[in-house]
Amino acid sequence: MTRKLEQEFNLPSMEELKELSKQDVIEVGIEAPTVVEAPADVVTTALTNAEKIDSALPTVDGVNKHDGDMENIAEKAMTSFEELMSLGMNVQDAHAGRIFETAGKMLQIAMDSKNAKVDKKLRMIDLQIKKMRIDAMDSGSTGGGDGGAVMDRNQLLQFLNKKDK
Questions:
Q1: Which residue in 15, 69, 74, 149 has its CB near the most CB atoms, within 10 A?
Q2: What is the DSSP string of the chain?
Q3: What is the mean pLDDT of the chain?
């Protein structure tokens, strides 16, 4: 970087940046907020969890095939819709109503197939989040250290019902 660019953009020199990169907190310019560094173990845990989610999604067989199939269905339905609409405009009025009704159904099929793609992805993400919660609960219950038992709501209700009897 040249000194003119450093002066123009109010940037620190390269030597200053090298020194600051060795420190925990970096402040650049007057308007820039202070960067607070998170503990390394928190960052590595978050990155590990994100990598687990990313790696788990492609391992499920048929995910990409389902997306492709739903896309094909949507394209065929849209093509059929357009053809039926043009046909409906060129037939007698007595028959046009039924053709337009069928064209509407084709449009509904296209919309449903697009929604199915999105719903499947959202369900998979939801399952991954639930799995992460269960893993976190399992790892958290072993290291409690306070001697207390970890129970879910149903186990607690069963325990209280047995005590009442």
A1: 74
A2: --HHHHHHTT---HHHHHHHHTSS----TTTSPPPPPPPHHHHHHHHHHHHHHHHHHHHSTTHHHHHHHHHHHHHHHHHHHHHHHHHHHTS-HHHHHHHHHHHHHHHHHHHHHHHHHHHHHHHHHHHHHHHHHHHHHHHHHHT--S-PPP--HHHHHHHHHHHH-
A3: 75
Range of the domain at 14: 1-37
Q: How many domains does the chain have?
A: 2
118 occurs within a structural domain: yes
pLDDT tens-digit readout, 110-162: 999 888 888 888 888 888 888 888 887 777 655 544 555 666 778 878 878 88
Task: Let me know whether 58 and 106 are in one domain.
Answer: yes
Say how far apart CA 124 and CA 56 lie, in whole Å: 10
**How far apart are the C-alpha atoms of 165 and 160, rounded to whole Å?**
9
The answer to whether residue 18 is domain-embedded is yes
Let me know if residue 153 belongs to a domain.
no
- List the one residue out of 80, 82, 73 whose CA is nearest residue 110: 73
